[in-house]
Amino acid sequence: MENRSAAGHAAALVTILIWGTTFISTKVLLNSFLPVEILLIRFVMGFLALLIVYPHRLKSAGIRQEGYFALAGLCGVCLYYLLENIALTYTLASNVGVIISAAPFFTAILSHIFMKGEDKLKKGFFVGFVAAMIGICLISFQGTLLEFNPLGDFLALLAAFLWACYSVLTRKIAGFGYHTIQTTRRVFGYGIIFMFPALLLFDFHPDFSRFNDPVNLLNMLFLGLGASALCFVTWNFAVRKLGAVKTSIYIYLVPVITVGTSVLVLKETITWITVAGMALTLAGLLLGERGTKA
Fold it and tell me: Cβ distance 32 to 216 under 8 Å?
């Protein structure tokens, strides 16, 4: 049991380490691609990679199971990323970063309502949530005043809620007993299908000549093979081993990893407020993990 738990924590940590650095690749690609183009290409690439790695067909038990796969693809692949990107056009990136970090709280509430036998919440979880959110605010706002942008902030909050839905759906799908790569690929497939209506709204025009630039190609490969194919498998594996709530708590680490990457790659400076925020966020993570009991 301890080995399974350790494997789940390791998978969640690897996932967050990679997801915490994806902002650099996305920022570079936005100079040449629309947000919806990046989204479609990375998940098509991820789908194909998973098909090559594990080409066995998933034969589901019926329409009810397919419904779970479809909802997971809609919530976690299509709508979550679209709403997050749209939110960034209406509100500050710092607002989005903080609001998205509320996903573990929504996950805990949904798990309590819909998942019988899932992690039970103790006081430590809520204390950890408050500590982590204060820490993330310190990291994101750097002592400046919070600026509310109702539409953008609401879209970010909705994105956080949808990621919580995805986590709970993934936990349910894990109970079907299929291989994690098979289920992840099926979810990707539905997510890609749901993206097509959005392509019409955002004036999508394929232009593969943009990949002649090796910078674009390498960054898209990182998002497609690393942040999508690998990370969704490791995240879903972690949810299977730890549960939706324990795994989602690792989301608190994303701003910490983002800051570390900014310092190392972009040579940005770090302040004492940022250090304090990172310390509080890490403390919130530890308290949150101890505040859940299966």
Answer: yes
* Residue 294 clears pLDDT 70, i.e. is over it: no
pTM recorded for the entire structure: 0.84
List the one residue out of 110, 168, 101, 166 whose CA is nearest residue 128. 101
**What's the pLDDT tens digit per position in 101-112?**
888 888 888 887
The dihedrals phi and psi of 95, each to the nearest 5 degrees, come to -60, -45
- Give the distance, in angstroms, between the CA of residue 15 and the centroid of all CA atoms in the same chain: 9
Confidence (pLDDT) at 76? 93
Assess contact for 238 and 15: CB atoms under 8 A.
Answer: yes
- Total domain count for the chain? 1
Residues in CB range of 1: below 8 A, 6 or more apart: none
For residue 189, give the nearest of 21, 34, 76, 286 by alpha carbon: 76
Domain that holds residue 156: 2-293
Find the length of the chain: 294
> Can you say whether the dihedral through the CA atoms of 130, 131, 133, 134 is positive or negative?
positive
**Cα gap 148→99, rounded to integer Å:** 11
